Amino acid sequence: RFVVMARVLRLVRVLVAMKQFQVIGSTFIDILPAAKRILLFLFSIMYIFCSLGMILFGGLITRDPSNSLSEKLRGTDFSENNYWENNFNDLLAGMNVLFNLLVVNNWTTQADGILAVSG
Question: Which is nearest to 61 in space by CA: 93, 92, 108?
Answer without folding.
Answer: 93
